[in-house]
Batch of 2 targets.
Target 1
Amino acid sequence: MSMRNCTCGAEPEVRRENRPTADGRDETFFRVSCPVCGQTGPAVSAAGKDEATAIAEAVEAWNAMIARARPSEA
Ligand SMILES: [Zn+2]
């Protein structure tokens, strides 16, 4: 799946984030982030799925966000 460019025109990248959960474990999230303007897509938890799936979902969520922001390019 291809990732849409950011609304600022830059190529975004997938970032991995670890956040502690309420019960003290670390949970891994993936989120698409623009290194130029700092815009980020929705964070997708990798809990219960493999990382490739979580990354694909993060890219999908980013693409949907950009599509809403720039409907003329959808
Ligand atoms: Zn940007």
Target 2
Amino acid sequence: MIITKELAQKWFTVFAEKVIQDKEQLSEYDRIIGDGDHGMNMARGAQQLLSSWQETPPVHLADVFKQAAMKWISGVGGASGPLYGTAFFEMAKAIGTKEELQHEELVNVIKAGFDGIRKRGKSEVGQKTMLDVWAPAIESLEEKQLTTEILETTLTKVTALKATKGRASFLGERSINEVDPGAASSKLFFEALLEAGDLNGD
Ligand SMILES: [Mg+2]
């Protein structure tokens, strides 16, 4: 399948709606292993993005990602603002002037987002962060086998990890079996992608 501006906008719209809907739950996860603001912060960015589209709809495919990056970087705060903002910005850069993405190009764009998070967060896979959802999601997407079940299983695996990065790492062993809020919101990001279109088809 081919990613167009319309499909990308649907992806981010579904993501924003999911974030707003799960706001309380995301903040609850963050109250346990962080500072309790993840849901509020993410929902603020999501709301701002949806509102901005009423006035300034994206013109090009990359605009969808650029506009999301701006909202997350300027309006979200916390740790998640810069991390998601960087991811979206790197994705916009990887898209450049393309107006359509083939499946393989989409995978590369998401990989660029992943690298952005990794560098900005100075983190690696296995530390119980967003990356632990992004990495397996990218792998499954590459094989055209990403499903909501895989995302569920992935989040369960991340939940079993001990946090060694960020605020949650201060909890040490007590972070085991608690849901990482960034991993939970990342799961919503990929669920939204699945809902926006049939990525495993042609
Ligand atoms: Mg927080």
